[in-house]
Amino acid sequence: MQILVRKLLHRISTKQTIGLRAYSTKKFIDVGQPTPASHPQLMKEGEITPGIGAEEYISRRKRLLEFLPENSVAILAAAPVKMMTDVVPYTYRQDADYLYITGCEQPGGLAVLSHECGLCMFMPETSPHDVNWKGPVAGVEAALETFKADKAYPMRKIHEILPDMIGRSSKLFHNKEAAAQTLTDLKAFQKADYYGKVKNLSKLTDVLRWVKSPAELKLMRESASIACQALLHTMMYSKTCPYEGMLAAKFEYECKMRCSQRMAFNPVVGGGPNATVIHYSRNDQKIEDGDLVLMDVGCELHGYVSDLTRTWAPCGSFSSVQEELYDLILQTNKECLKLCKPGANLLDIHHYSVRMLRKGLKEIGIVNRNGTDPYNELNPTSIGHYLGMDVHDSSTVSYERTLEPGVVITIEPGLYIPSSFDGPERFRGIGIRIEDEVLITETGYEVLTGSMPKEIKHIESLLNNFSHGLGMESCSNVKAATN
């Protein structure tokens, strides 16, 4: 077992998530986001965003046009900037649909796609003051040269051009959640909305984004690999630093040291009873000796996210009760993975997991003597969801839709037994989830998070043989500060 873990650690320490290329000293135009000229160590010639070439973006636009009814228009707004205070913005993240079609990672833009004009982009205009405070941003020239738009105009032209395009269309598809006031204030848009011509663009883009291309899958594999490496280091760190906040910080640090841009979501680090709160986010407690910790985490790499969960005992040993529950979740995880293949669907896999967990709850004595079924109280979640540019990707695609090669899902059985549970006391306050990221292939499935240990014997060996001294100094500082 120790040899296996050493090999795993060696792979992690030597793996290069993104290959380095020679640095270029040539002058380049800064368009407000990485380009092959400005970031040759990150991007290849012909790529609009890291890993995704211009040909793929153009192909996406053509496919969306095929979905658009005749004489209709798709309008995509960039995500708005959200402010923490009057002058301090939150970290910006682009709307997934806008990014998927344009490749533009910056705020302030509007894109129009139609059979008549192709891709037309309206770009923000900046002043010297804006550039001094926020840096350069992409304008009309970048829309044409970098993002390969067919037409481009400054945003001030929107009142002259867009109303006529809307007026001539029979239907208008729009990413409503990123609605830009510049668009919604137009009388032509308001009229179209009043007459029921405005439709939800996600109904079309979710289907396009559901099956990933080879380039997208490469980024998703890399994102999953980064998350696994980061969580493995965090797991080893937990024995000497059993604090929720420190484990959240450790995971984020390890991800960003491997070139991830951000977390896919706020890390869930639930120690003891906190693990029974499915989307626990406070991360402010010490994990008591003998308690489990549940970490649901993920990171984002160039627009593509990962999502995995592991549950373990930072002290290095599961109790018999914890092991009994954990084994039920682990076996459910493994059996559900076997069902992941073309022709299956998430809803059927979910129903199978429910039957398996209900049977297990009865066998280990959690079902009340009066025969009531507590399952929905102990697990109100689905077995999984689609994954891609968003954590719950392609959310309008039904879980009854037949899975196809190139679709990525999660498999995440769990049990969350609150301290107030009317059942055997020994199980109260225990939350366990084991989540894997799964790619549907031509012949079955590939577990993208398969490098992350989930067998109890592997986890205990990792904690007891490879975590000595990690984080000891920082934890000592915490203990001193709290005494």
From TrEMBL:
<dbReference type="InterPro" id="IPR029149">
    <property type="entry name" value="Creatin/AminoP/Spt16_N"/>
</dbReference>
<dbReference type="InterPro" id="IPR036005">
    <property type="entry name" value="Creatinase/aminopeptidase-like"/>
</dbReference>
<dbReference type="Pfam" id="PF00557">
    <property type="entry name" value="Peptidase_M24"/>
</dbReference>
<keyword id="KW-0378">Hydrolase</keyword>
<dbReference type="InterPro" id="IPR007865">
    <property type="entry name" value="Aminopep_P_N"/>
</dbReference>
<protein>
    <recommendedName>
        <fullName>Aminopeptidase P N-terminal domain-containing protein</fullName>
    </recommendedName>
</protein>
<dbReference type="InterPro" id="IPR052433">
    <property type="entry name" value="X-Pro_dipept-like"/>
</dbReference>
<keyword id="KW-0464">Manganese</keyword>
<dbReference type="GO" id="GO:0005739">
    <property type="term" value="C:mitochondrion"/>
</dbReference>
<dbReference type="InterPro" id="IPR000994">
    <property type="entry name" value="Pept_M24"/>
</dbReference>
<comment type="similarity">
    <text>Belongs to the peptidase M24B family.</text>
</comment>
<keyword id="KW-0479">Metal-binding</keyword>
<dbReference type="InterPro" id="IPR001714">
    <property type="entry name" value="Pept_M24_MAP"/>
</dbReference>
<dbReference type="GO" id="GO:0006508">
    <property type="term" value="P:proteolysis"/>
</dbReference>
<dbReference type="GO" id="GO:0070006">
    <property type="term" value="F:metalloaminopeptidase activity"/>
</dbReference>
<feature type="domain" description="Aminopeptidase P N-terminal">
    <location>
        <begin position="52"/>
        <end position="181"/>
    </location>
</feature>
<dbReference type="GO" id="GO:0030145">
    <property type="term" value="F:manganese ion binding"/>
</dbReference>
<dbReference type="Pfam" id="PF05195">
    <property type="entry name" value="AMP_N"/>
</dbReference>
